[in-house]
Protein 1
Amino acid sequence: MADRVQLQQVLMNLMINGIDAMKDLDGTRQLAIKSQRAENDQLTVSVSDTGVGLPAQQADQIFDAFFTTKVDGTGMGLRISRSIAESHGGRLRAVDNPPRGATFHLTLPFKTEAHP
Ligand SMILES: Nc1ncnc2c1ncn2[C@@H]1O[C@H](COP(=O)(O)OP(=O)(O)OP(=O)(O)O)[C@@H](O)[C@H]1O
Ligand SMILES: [Mg+2]
């Protein structure tokens, strides 16, 4: 049970972030979107890129409101995305994607109480 428009917002932000992270790099640029069943009746959707990677020393700030490394960024994308994940009883986290790039994991329960 989920709000389609909100999940679309989350996935669009993750995909655009991945594309932004790769846009100045040469070589193979790969954006991978995978979904899989996780433990405890959870669903994980992951968005991986082969971009510049999470900002060094600031990886734990990327979910903060107004944190951005882009000239035209609002820095609200991940903050809002994490709020949406949590309001569905899920979570959103970021890890490095060796050898380069980042992966964002969105985990959601299969079913929750019906949304008002
Ligand atoms: N896939 C990624 N690879 C590397 N860094 C990332 C990635 N996704 C997010 N970030 C970092 O996290 C910051 C915050 O991302 P967020 O989506 O919240 O805002 P934004 O993309 O900068 O702005 P907006 O979403 O408003 O366009 C980015 O500016 C960037 O530094
Ligand atoms: Mg963004």
Note: The beta strands are 32-38, 42-48, 91-96, 102-109.
Protein 2
Amino acid sequence: MTSPKASRPVVAVLGAGLAGLSAAYELRKNGIQVVVLEARTRPGGRIETLRAGFAEGMYAEAGAMNFSDTEPTVLRYAAEFNLSIQNKRPLTAFHRYFIDGHLLSDQDPDAHWPGLRKDEQKLGPDGLFQKYIFPMLAKVGDPDAPGWPSKELRELDAISVAEFVTRQGASPGAVRLLGLGLFDEDGDGISRTSALFALAWLSRLFPLHAVYTMAGGMESLPLAFARRLRKQIEYGCVVRRVEQQRDRVRIHYERSGRQARSIEADYSICTIPFPVLRDISFDPALPPIKQKICNELLNTSVVRTYIQTKTRFWAAPNFTGQTYTDLPVMNLYSAYDGPGSRGILESYVTSKEALKFGAEPESVALQKMIEGMTQVYPQLIEEAEGGVRKDWQADPWARGGYADYQPGQFLEFYPHVAKPDGRIHYAGDHTSILPGWMEGALSSGVRAAGEVEKRLRSSQH
Ligand SMILES: Cc1cc2nc3c(=O)[nH]c(=O)nc-3n(C[C@H](O)[C@H](O)[C@H](O)COP(=O)(O)OP(=O)(O)OC[C@H]3O[C@@H](n4cnc5c(N)ncnc54)[C@H](O)[C@@H]3O)c2cc1C
């Protein structure tokens, strides 16, 4: 399938994150001319393997760090590109929790969990998930199916996950424990996320049976796409305005050095995250509901701080390297497990804590991080060599980590996030039921490419 006007691309893809890359790759496979305009000087968007600032070839992930056996599109592309994936940890490995000053293992049958009722004590965090959340996952159904959701489910959009599990019988202590490391990391917090939205995305991913990572860094996935789209991707191109005419779209962009340029195409696939889209002008204007989504759908703030250490002193047999805390430093990860003896202890903070840490000058924030992390691992004070910070809220091409629906927003917004506007189609994890997951990004790119191909086919008859 080629354009009737062979000199211009048939499809202009906006953004070279996983969604834009998968859309462009699929279109090209079917012989459709495509150009990808990307603001950064690299592919991958919110996949970023950080290497600068670490010793001995060490690296850490700023964005996606792992994926599971329940993410078929990620696995399919990894196989198609012959990428080496490795099991991140056995599912039997244990996590640590640091609550009310106590360091606990989720596999210690004798652990005493602060705040849990007597009948919840033996359950631990995983048992609480099985009891209060898991039974509902089988009942959620497919948010993308016609007629979804049922009346019973609709009511769950009005309440938060915290209210939902409370209605299932969870004690306040159980609500807090369920938030740590899951809802407080994958969104804006257990009290701020729509229960219906959370159940919908969880039902896509759970139960999972294996957790993987890309050997050598997650960037290998976007780089594999980019190698196959060398001639199609234009880096350093900041899209400023999108104009639609009856038979074409015109994309106005600025190239580094502020040179104004524009290109025409038959269709566009826009993968730019909603908070960034807010500042792009559209002619005709976006429908009011899309504009409202751009303005109001929350993009969880995320700050990740990586402290390089002399040794991996937190390691223990069968330990995942993940410690979920109730401190402002939130979740601690062993962020590097490659060759050498040095380690990287990471703090992953979201929401209000991320805004606070992000507002501090980097050197002050690093010092506060080390002090906070030292409460959990006192040895850090002797072991820390220095650090690196990634603040996703401050990243002008992301403006946050991932979309999260607050109570009442999911049923209003979700039906519109992926709806095309004239010749503009949308992709990106924020247009899928899996915001914050590579599976959401990749599958949305494939979907949008399919939508455009269908229109091209029908316009040829
Ligand atoms: C902190 C963090 C942790 C994560 N952890 C995981 C994980 O463990 N597992 C997992 O599966 N997923 C994870 N994710 C999610 C995963 O990274 C995303 O789902 C995926 O990368 C999103 O891809 P995308 O193409 O939809 O969006 P993006 O990657 O954001 O791509 C959009 C692209 O558009 C470009 N752009 C923006 N504005 C403009 C403009 N004006 N003009 C031109 N280009 C523009 C951007 O530079 C970017 O390249 C994580 C994300 C974050 C932030």
Note: The mean pLDDT is 95.
